[in-house]
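Students often ask what a holo structure prediction actually looks like on paper. The answer is less mysterious than it sounds. You provide the chain, you provide the ligand, and the output is a string of discrete structure tokens encoding the 3D arrangement of the protein together with iron/sulfur cluster.
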Amino acid sequence: MLSFNQKIVTYSPAYTLVPTYECFNRCSYCNFRVEPGSHPWMTLAEAENILLPLKNQNVCEILILSGEVHPLSSRREAWFGLIYDLCALALSMGFLPHTNAGPLSFAEMQKLKNVNVSMGLMLEQLTPKLLNTVHRHAPSKLPQLRLQQLQWAGELQIPFTTGLLLGIGETEDDWWETLAAISDLHHRYQHIQEVILQPHSPGSQQIFDAEAFNPLQLPEVIAKAREILPADITIQIPPNLIKDEGWLLACLDAGARDLGGISPKDEVNPDYPHLQEQRLREILQPAGWELRPRLPVYNQFNSWLVEELAATVRNR
Ligand code: SF4
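The corresponding structure tokens follow.
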């Protein structure tokens, strides 16, 4: 683990595969989803064509990021099977998969543990108030359902990334409550590797009519989150959503230490292109920060990985 005083900030060289953009939820701030049945799903052949050239590039993590098929849908099994097969394909090619596909059943999570070095799900906010606003038409955004995912990940010893979406109608007290809940679960299972603090950033497809989260407030939130969260959880921020370079540096000074997966496109915020590695270094180095690549699983979790995953991590 890095000393907190070292000026080192990490990122994961990544590529995002999207099995499907379709989603049965309709979060009003969404810039990702399409209507169920309106677009074909990714095929394994398409995925292989995308992944092959990445073998010679600086890519380690394959993020499998999917819209959600309803748990009771007759297409759920095929959807889950595609996600599993995409992970297995990426793994067979030497990449390290990390899946974020919404709430899963315990059995689905158990299966994905065999082909993922880590998994993720944004807790977003615990307050049920949002079920009457931005999540009115998003059945899988039930806070207790999402909290249960974090608990199951702990029981299954799956290294996990979660986070808060800031500026979707919650209060400051809601942030601290959500962070405290993450902290409690981590104390029980020691399985949370990162907490993302993601500022709401309006996109061209969303219907939620609200300002972007004020980036000037982010360092203050990070500093308080650093007090609430255990020291072994890294705070991650998405640099493409923090427009001002000075405020990006202020976020690091406040305690953020990771910039997440940097891939050609931010699929969740397609209106905000990722800053690529070279540009990030140009911002960070003059301020004394070293940018370092990392794996999508932290060293302390290696003993939780099944052998095939552990062997692929050792080769990286
Ligand atoms: S934000 Fe996620 S869960 Fe909500 S509609 Fe979009 S893809 Fe679905």
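The chain has a mean pLDDT of 96.
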